[in-house]
Inverse folding.
């Protein structure tokens, strides 16, 4: 069945020049191909797209383009989580995301809300978001897991150890892969105990969150260990600083944020091959092309000649 869906996806993919459309939230867990989650930060200070989509029309236009290019979900965030970032208050965060979410939902674009606050998640769900992406995995706000249980929406639980202003001081592990697996497993247990349905949970290793480059690479290399927990895995490397460090100039200057998409694509394809459920990226068009190549390669030896 999975092969059949992939072949279908491949044909659609070829017809659309690389973009694989999906029908929305009901398909999210059974797309038949890896999901692409497009990043839309409506913040002044996110590390990659901060300030670009603060204007509601610009945000909607960018999300529409990402959807057209192959995004299965657009992830809207109103609070920067870049290392060292301070917090904004909930009304400010709601004010940034609510109108954009409403516009996208009414345009038929599937939306996830990237927030650690239950009040923001609740406002976004009321405005039409269908997925909650909590980078704290339910830890930051005690009201989040009960809300998610009540909403019975798909949830992304990311590995997290603390807010951005202090997280890099928490990047200490005995064995990062085992520690992240165990801590994510505890987040999943908490969510299920709060009433979140297991089949609605997606997990995420949280690259860059309380992690040094060496930790990110170790986790990227061992997605199989996280997959053993039995939940879909979202891989979110896009433009992160460990890629900038890898590609640094001879003088040690990191590769600028806007020039990390080729490296991001390489990590995304490796994640597809490892069995990731999906990737969260800024460059949706390039990722859709890479996914088309990956699907074609994957299905070539299964199709009729
Ligand atoms: N990273 C960022 C924001 N939200 N959500 C998930 N699930 N996983 C991530 O790794 C993640 C996230 C920070 O990156 P951005 O500034 O590009 O949004």
């Amino acid at each position: 069945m999975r092969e059949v869906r992939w072949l279908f996806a491949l044909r659609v993919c070829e017809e659309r020049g690389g973009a694989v459309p999906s029908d929305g939230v009901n398909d999210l867990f059974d797309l038949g191909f890896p999901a692409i989650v497009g990043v839309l930060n409506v913040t002044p200070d996110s590390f990659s797209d901060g300030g670009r989509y603060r204007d509601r029309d610009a945000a909607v236009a960018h999300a529409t383009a990402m959807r057209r290019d192959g995004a299965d979900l657009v992830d809207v965030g109103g609070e920067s989580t870049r290392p060292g970032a301070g917090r904004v208050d909930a009304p400010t965060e709601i004010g940034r995301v609510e109108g954009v979410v409403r516009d996208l939902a009414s345009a038929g674009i599937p939306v996830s809300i990237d927030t650690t606050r239950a009040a923001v998640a609740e406002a976004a769900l009321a405005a039409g978001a269908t997925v909650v992406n909590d980078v704290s995995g339910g830890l930051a706000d005690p009201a989040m897991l009960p809300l998610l249980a009540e909403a019975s929406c798909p949830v992304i639980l990311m590995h997290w150890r603390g807010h951005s202003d202090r997280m890099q001081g928490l990047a200490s592990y005995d064995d990062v892969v085992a520690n992240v697996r165990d801590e994510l497993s505890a987040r999943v247990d908490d969510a299920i105990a709060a009433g979140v349905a297991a089949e609605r949970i997606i997990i995420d290793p949280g690259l860059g969150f309380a992690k040094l480059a060496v930790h990110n690479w170790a986790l990227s290399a061992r997605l199989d260990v996280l997959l053993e927990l039995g939940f879909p895995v979202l891989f979110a490397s896009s433009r992160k600083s460990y890629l900038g460090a890898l590609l640094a100039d001879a003088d040690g200057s990191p590769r600028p944020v806007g020039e990390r998409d080729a490296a991001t694509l390489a990590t995304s394809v490796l994640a597809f091959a490892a069995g990731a459920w999906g990737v969260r990226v800024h460059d949706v068009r390039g990722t859709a092309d890479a996914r088309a190549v990956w699907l074609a390669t994957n299905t070539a030896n299964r199709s009729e000649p």
